[in-house]
Input
Amino acid sequence: MFPDPSSRSAELFARAAAVMPGANTRHMVTFGPYVVYGDHGEGCRLTDVDGNVYLDWINNFSTQIHGYGFEPVLEAVRAQIEKMICCILPSEPEVELAELICSRMPGVEQVRFANSGTEAVMVAIKGARGLTGRSKIAKAEGGYHGQFDLVEASFLPTPDNWGPDDRPAAPPFGRGTPKSLLDQVVVIPFNNVEATIARLEENASELACVIIDPIPARLGFTPATLDYLMAIRDFCTRNGSLLIFDEVFCNRAGYHGAQGRLGVTPDMTVMGKIIGGGFPIGAIGGLRSAMSVFDNLAGPLRVSHSGTFTANPISMAAGVAAMKHLTPQAFDQLERQGDRFRAGLTQKMNAAGLEMRANGVASMTSLQFFREPALNYREFHRRSGDNYLQRMRALHRAMLNEGVLMATRGVMIGSTAMSDADIDETIERAGRALAAFAALPNAA
Output
């Protein structure tokens, strides 16, 4: 049972505390009183250093879309490592992966690679500024776009700093963020067409781009409405600003990404996670007109983009293998199982007498402490309650002790390695965890 102070994980955590601040390298995976350490994975199951086996519903925040030990990826990586780990020259898998992505994404005619989603966002914004000659960006309140202080503005705001409903403020996420940087961010209220367009029009002459996650994880995978996205699309077209979709996470919404599912085409798209087969990757894609800002052959270079490990052959080869097996049929299976999973969780929540919902799209699920859908960040925050994090930590621990690994904020992500039997097993285990959680004094 977790926690166990005599466990190998507890021992490793104590060692880590001496050499790492907070005993970790990734804040978002940390939980107390110590963190469980992984040892090996197979299919959809992860075994920790103490031999405990978990059904993995985090999948490294979505990167492991084929689970662990997926043989096509392993074969591709083995072959590439034997040939060349990295070098200064580009490699053929880079071209092949670019071709695969461009063939699927409506708004991607050309693509460039990076090493993470954060890096891809930074490069896309840099490109939008270079193309337009403007400096400001707009983003939705509460939106997460990586660990870049410009786009961290208004990430996880609270009532004491989020400002008026129709004119959200741009509070910093981290200490020391320059005020001059925050002045370059226009925060728009998610799914509020009238207030959003008013904010954009007010700053129209200075806006280089609008960046938005169309199915944001921080909103529990509630999509932007079509009216909302079309209104922003229309503004950007009229104003000469770029519309950037952040599909680092929600690219797994379907074979043609979130943009194909929702029917709105952006000028640029940032990607990551599933396109790398489990290896570090990011990508900036877009329409040819937008991507021309990076073209150093057609004339004077407007925006430079490079990097020592950009488009490294290992990530490229793994990405090609992973993407080739992400067929329309694979996405159909992921969606069917996602629906099955959410329906089963809902039954267990009701049986436990919990005012909760399992919200989500396709293979992306979010556990929420309310039953009516939240359409924007403020609704999500208010309905979650002041003790949200305390309750979610308790639920996370209950799930952990039933052998189900979920993210500490209730996100659960499926993989093609899961069978219907694995889904049903997870629902049964989650049912026991939900019942145990419901018996706690802070559950209500």
